[in-house]
Design brief:
heterodimer, A: mainly alpha, MetI-like fold, 11 helices, B: alpha+beta, Dipeptide-binding Protein, domain 1, Dipeptide-binding Protein, domain 3, 16 helices
């Protein structure tokens, strides 16, 4: 098991480092169009071939990894923090607090957030640089994606609140802040970590869906989401199976995350 | 016992007849539910398909020759003032239910068409001025229709007018076209059967159509449509995307057809509206013909055709596609791709390069955004090509894809955009259908709509020419006027025309004759003369 975990950790590190060093490792700029080599198959010059506009897929994958691997975790962190705050407070205080917080959460979950995002994008300034647009996109995802996690956190906090060691701490006169920080938060960590890791691929895919609707990362900046859009043309995959590489990378990264985290949890 | 062989023979005959009927059933897909079977209310593609196949018209625009041909009207004449059209009708024609056809049916159809309560989209094209349309029935087979004002391109408008029976108890179900609606299952299919009373016969005297029936399956998914074509379940596909076309062409030879440049065009324009929510210095760029033409010259249309449409598109010349044989101004050529010429033009307006960045006289960096509709891959790719082409002359472009309602809101209400990339699906040959685009007061005059008075001399000239062409029945003069409009549009580039997409389609090798054309309906325009060959005959 440990060997697998080590391999997973190494694989993750490689992908992260490759993403961070995209500027150095990529053979070409992500926006550079080699128009005479459009839709080229993998070769020494283009490791993963080129897209319809002649852009080097490998370079775009490296730059896209940087965008997605840095920003999807940031969005996941933001949403998990919000979930911890709202769900944790609701579970800890219970009663009316819980009812109102969960009502708010349900309201948030029932909101057509996709349309909300479209509306938000529609009112943003048009001359927004691609980098700013990607930051806005992931921030919005983080701000809107906390509700489901908040329910899970609330339920976890509730069960902790009624546990014997918390009751004992309360009886010993432990104050609310300390009780939460010292006794409850460490026990909530697995729940929060799980929510965090689950959110990352969800946000990467949400960004891909938004790309189709016009709210994703704008051209020419790549992200895993925009690279996954090449799979829309499903029947072309048989002819160009290398189009699947971003999907495999996403699956690999998510699986590696899970393996590393699970190992940490088991070893606790 | 003796009768057994006779019965068997009869059974074989019946089965053979059934098989033959089934073999002569043309199948293709309707991409949406037909909203109506009433020909005067048709407003979308699916209903239009059914109208085309079932409706009998006074005259038909031959989709191949682009010439009007007599149908239910043996002949027609238009008065010098362009207000009256007189028809001499074909005799002995019956509706599908056996009701005889007469001038009264034409009068009834015109009444329906112009009924303000019905809001007929087909009827709108005939509204030329204030006042009623008068029909004068001069005998059983003569009718004159008088309009309150001249209607330009009047005769061609009748290609869309399916004549309805004024006396049949079946109302709009009684038709004069080659087929009639036999069965409709919402969400599933529309079955059209051969009209046994169809008036047209072939050279050998055989009554048309040859096909027994046409089955139109309702299916929105284009991939499923392609799959069914591959399986041989459907015979035709109209409007194939370049990717699907190339894939199908690679798999099966002899079933894909590239009919050449279609009437559809893709273009870009700058927001020049005085009330546009953009900085004054940018508005000044966009209102300069030099700036617009420079941008036009810096865009490589050949690359757009090759990279975005897999060579299934032609560099566009102007508002009229070469597919429109009569109205296209053949003196004009597509803007040549020339970066040096683009920079020279920009220099004339005081623009200069500072490093990699183009700046105007005041030192403002030349940067603008192009909006387009989200989810349209071809346009997104086209925008990326333009982005790189313009970067080569120091212009920074931000591509913004928006959902369609937001896009329309920015284009027509808030005017909060800088440039827009869209396309036009053009079904009408006559320039009259583009009046609201070219008149400066028009709401579709996208670069600066609804002008109280023309903002520029060239827009005033276009107004004058468009009104002149619309008010004369003399086709030669109309052509001269509209040729000049095309020249002005080419010189001023209010719309930067990019490409005309090719008309791509697929026709099964069983279908004879396969003669796809660029005008809609591309593949089944000659359905009344189509036959399906059996496997052995393919």
């Amino acid at each position: 098991m440990k060997a697998f975990t080590r391999i997973a950790a190494i694989a993750l590190s490689v992908v992260f480092v490759a993403g961070l060093l995209a500027g150095v490792l990529a053979p070409a700029h992500y926006a550079k169009q080699f128009r005479e080599d459009a839709s080229a198959s993998p070769s020494g010059k283009f490791l993963l071939g080129t897209d319809e506009l002649g852009r080097d897929r490998f370079s775009r994958l490296l730059y896209g990894s940087r965008v997605s691997l840095l920003l999807a975790p940031c969005a996941a962190l933001l949403s998990t923090l919000l979930a911890a705050l709202i769900g944790g407070a609701a579970g800890y205080f219970g009663g009316r607090w819980e009812k109102s917080a969960m009502l708010f959460t349900d309201l948030f979950m029932s909101m057509p957030w996709l349309f909300l995002l479209i509306t938000v994008r529609a009112v943003l300034p048009l001359n927004t640089a691609p980098t700013t647009s990607v930051l806005i996109t992931f921030s919005l995802l983080g701000l809107l994606g906390w509700a489901a996690s908040a329910r899970v956190v609330c339920s976890g906090t509730k069960s902790l609140r009624n546990s014997e060691f918390v009751l004992q701490a309360k009886a010993a006169g432990c104050r609310a802040g300390r009780l939460f920080a010292v006794h409850m938060l460490p026990n909530l960590k697995p729940v929060l970590f799980a929510q965090f890791w689950i959110s990352i691929p969800v946000f990467i895919l949400a960004e891909a869906n938004l790309g189709i609707l016009g709210l994703g990362v704008s051209e020419p900046l790549p992200s895993w989401g925009s690279l996954l859009r090449e799979l829309e043309d499903f029947s072309a995959i048989g002819l160009q199976p290398w189009r699947l590489v971003p999907l495999f990378l996403l699956l690999m990264v998510v699986s590696c995350f899970q393996m590393v985290i699970s190992e940490k949890e088991y070893s606790r | 016992m003796k009768r057994y062989p006779i019965r068997l023979a009869a059974l074989v005959c019946v089965l053979a007849a059934l098989c033959s009927a089934a073999a002569q059933e043309l199948h293709f897909i309707l991409r949406s539910e037909p909203k109506t079977f009433n020909p005067v209310l048709v407003a979308e593609d699916a209903s239009d398909t059914i109208r085309y196949l079932t409706g009998g018209v006074l005259m038909r625009l031959n989709r191949k020759s682009q010439q009007l041909e007599p149908e239910l009207a043996k002949s027609w004449s238009i008065s010098k003032d362009g207000r009256t059209i007189t028809f001499k009708l074909r005799e002995g024609v019956l509706f599908s239910d056996g009701t005889p056809f007469s001038a009264n049916d034409v009068a009834f159809t015109m009444k329906q068409l112009m009924d303000p309560e019905l809001h007929s989209p087909t009827g709108d094209a005939f509204r030329s001025g204030k006042g009623d349309v008068i029909t004068q029935v001069n005998g059983k087979h003569h009718i004159a229709i008088i309009f309150p004002a001249p209607v330009a391109g009047l005769a061609k408008l009748f290609d869309q007018v399916a004549i309805m029976s004024g006396s049949s108890p079946q109302k709009e179900k009684a038709v004069l076209g080659a087929f009639m609606v036999a069965e409709y299952k919402p969400g599933d299919f529309v079955l059209l059967k051969r009209n046994p009373n169809y008036w047209k016969k072939d050279a050998s005297g055989r009554r048309l159509p040859y096909l027994e029936s046409v089955r139109l399956d309702i299916q929105q998914n284009r991939d499923i449509e392609l799959l069914r074509f591959r399986r041989g379940e459907i015979h035709l596909i109209n409007d194939l995307s370049p990717e699907l076309f190339d894939r199908l062409a690679a798999e099966t030879s002899g079933v894909t057809y590239d009919a050449g440049a279609s009437m559809d065009s893709e273009f870009l324009w700058f927001n020049q509206a005085p009330k546009a929510a953009i900085p004054a210095y940018k508005l000044a760029w966009f209102r300069s013909a030099n700036f617009r033409r420079a941008i036009s010259s810096a865009i490589n249309r050949e690359d757009i055709s090759r990279l975005v449409y897999g060579k299934h598109a032609q560099p566009a010349v102007g508002p009229v596609s070469p597919a429109n044989q009569f109205w296209f101004n053949s003196k004009l050529k597509a803007q040549a791709f020339d970066r040096k010429a683009a920079l020279d033009r920009l220099t004339q307006d005081g623009f200069h390069l500072e490093g990699d960045m183009l700046r105007d006289r005041q030192g403002n960096a030349v940067e603008f955004s192009i909006i387009t509709n989200a989810g349209n891959k071809a346009r997104e790719r086209m925008a990326a090509v333009i982005q790189q082409d313009l970067a080569e002359i120091g212009v920074k472009v931000n591509v913004v894809t928006l959902d369609f309602p937001s896009l329309i809101d920015r284009m027509t209400q808030s005017f909060n955009y800088e440039a827009c990339l869209l396309g036009l699906v053009n079904t009408e040959l006559d320039p009259n259908s583009q009046m609201t685009v070219w008149l400066s007061s028009g709401e579709n005059h996208q670069w600066s709509p609804n002008q109280a008075t023309p903002e520029t001399p060239w827009e005033a000239e276009i107004d004058k020419l468009m009104r002149a062409q619309a008010s004369t029945p003399d086709l030669k003069k109309r052509k001269q006027y509209f040729d000049r409009v095309q020249e002005i549009v080419w010189e001023q580039a209010p719309f930067i025309y990019l490409v005309n997409k090719n008309a791509l389609c697929a026709i099964s090798s069983a279908v004879r004759p396969a003669e796809p054309v660029v005008l809609r309906p591309q593949t089944y325009w000659n359905a009344e003369r189509m036959v399906l060959a059996s496997d052995g005959q393919k």
